[in-house]
Amino acid sequence: MKQLKRWLLLPLSMILLLAPLGCSFGNDDQETVRVAEVTRSIFYAPLYAAMAQGYFSEEGIELELTTAWGGDKTMTTLLSDGADIALVGAETSIYVYAQNASDPVINFAALTQTDGTFLVSRTPTDEFRWDNLNGSTFLGQRKGGMPQMVGEHVLRQHGIDPHKDLKLIQNIDFGNIASAFASGTGDYVQLFEPQATLFENEGLGHIVASFGEESGEVPYTVFMAKESTLKNDTETIERFTRALYKGQQWVDEQSPEIIAASIVTFFEDTPVDVVTQVVERYKDQGSYATDPLLSPGAWDNLQTIMDDSGELPQYVDYEALVNTSIAESILK
């Protein structure tokens, strides 16, 4: 809640700096749709595949994509009309709703349906058990963020109190967590891809568990827009969602090697073989949603995880912040 208030108090100069400058696809007779993504991640492969395969162009959309690098900046961009659509964690829509927003942010299409982080051990183990973490030093994610909430939720599911049974470190900036572990901090670390795979390939760590598999289905990353946008630009949002669905189906049908070759240009600093490994890992555990429909069960699981971590400002009914009509029309 405190973080959300900081978003809403950002000065106008910062809001203007956050306006998308991104890359565009298509031609002059297409409608421009501005999308702000929370970060650039192989976790979002179906979006990049839809772009690379030309599905947005087929739907008459010239997509302008910008990376906001953070949930707060992404939501600020959307709320200030710097973007038409945001790709960010569904929990942010709850934070905005709890502030009694006159034009709430509505989730209309799912992209990922599990957590995307992995537990990496400094030392190899033939048979990992969660109680191995008792008494260890655990390098977690930022307090209040969805990765940390999921991490703590999973630990509790395995009978571990993250604030009593181990030494929890969560005061390191997101961008420095991997380097802190590589330099010797922590016995275990919670990492996103591709860092987890890179560490394993380089012998710096060993992936021993998946937080995505352990925490179940959750609307981890979704496309959302203001309620007014969904009402006034329904046809555009439908075309956007149809293009996304084509990308989701394509990713579901193709091999990791083909997917990686299609999206590798979005990750200039990551070798294609690493992209392939990451895509395969996410596909195997069902992280990529195969259609845009966000389920009630996933929504409830999200709020359970938030509540367990003390970060749920209020319970919000599924119907209040999830629009299923667009996804349902696409799936017919």
Automatic annotation (TrEMBL):
Cell compartment(s), UniProt? Periplasm
Q: Name one Pfam family in it.
A: NMT1
The lineage's top-level taxon is: Bacteria
Segments forming domain SsuA/THI5-like: 45-251
Q: Known InterPro entries for this protein?
A: SsuA/THI5 (IPR015168)
What keyword terms does UniProt attach to this protein? Signal
Q: What is its main location?
A: periplasm
Point out the signal peptide segment: 1-24
What family is this protein classified in? Belongs to the bacterial solute-binding protein SsuA/TauA family.
> What's the protein called, per UniProt?
ABC transporter substrate-binding protein
The protein's organism comes out as: Alkalihalophilus lindianensis
